[in-house]
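User: We ran a pulldown and think these components assemble together. Before we commit to crystallization trials, I'd like a predicted model of the whole complex to look at. Sequences follow.
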Amino acid sequence: MKLTVNGKIHEHAGQGSIDALLEELSANPAHTALMVNGSVVSSNDWKTTLLKENDEVEMLVFVGGG
Amino acid sequence: MSDTLKIGDQELNSRLFLGTGKFSSSQAMIEAVKASGSELVTVALRRFNRAQAEDDLYGPLAELGNVRLMPNTSGAINAKEAVRAALLGRELSKSRIVKLEIHPNPHHLLPDPIETYEAAIELVKQDFLVLPYIPADPVLAKRLEDVGCAAVMPLGAAIGTGKGLSTADMIKIIVRDANIPVVVDAGLRAPSEAAAALEMGCDAVLVNSAIAVAENPAGMGAAFKIGVEAGRAARLAGLMPTSEVAMASSPLTSFLSSND
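Assistant: Here's a predicted model for the assembly, 326 residues in total across the polymer chains.
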């Protein structure tokens, strides 16, 4: 399934849940916040939220900032 | 004596807030936060990048225990983006506190008052404790208080300039009129400036560059801690009034003069 993850095309090979995508990308779920097509998806819903072809996913983490 | 700072439902013993950007390493940042005694630090959001996993501050910050995280909305150039950033930050921090900052122009990084005001209204509606970074504008500060912000954070000088309290006259008006905490955010370079901000009645200061790019960040964190404590203690003790004419501290009987 073709997705856009953080602005880059990503071919997802898992079963299509957000959890599966995070695992595929080696992202720590506890450290990640996520939006799909501009809407924030709470981590409580990651197991059950299924991604669709051409979805745009933004994955964010905390970094230093003032 | 208890002198707790209350911001919404949050109670803080330290009046020094720290930014976590620009440090040479996360270890240097952690040591500076510890030395500063700060209980509230800001963090930013950035796209996940597997190649730069060490930039992820979540782990290092969790070590700090009693330090609360205040995600900022840096990078947002309008209200809509700021609200989205705040929602994402809340997912990670699990806290209602947000530093609302919208500065569309990278040249001066000055906050956009109109977008900030609109975003504040929306974020208050969504149950955030909103601390907006604003120009030192007493009218805007009052308007943000009126829409339910938990504090206002006027700038001392532009971000990262180290030009100190260049807006002191306006900040004094904001302090005089405010019924919510006033936090000077941005521009401070020296602990004496933090002391001056607290002396003039500000409730706290937020410092990043001055500590992060000091030769010894932990040493500067400790120095700012003393500056903030001195300024607050002086405010509570009541500064003497100023006078246009000299007023002697010693008796002026001219007993050494041969004319008596």
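Residues 2-60 of chain A form a domain with the Ubiquitin-like (UB roll) fold (CATH 3.10.20.30). That may be worth checking against your pulldown data before setting up trials.

User: Thanks, that helps.
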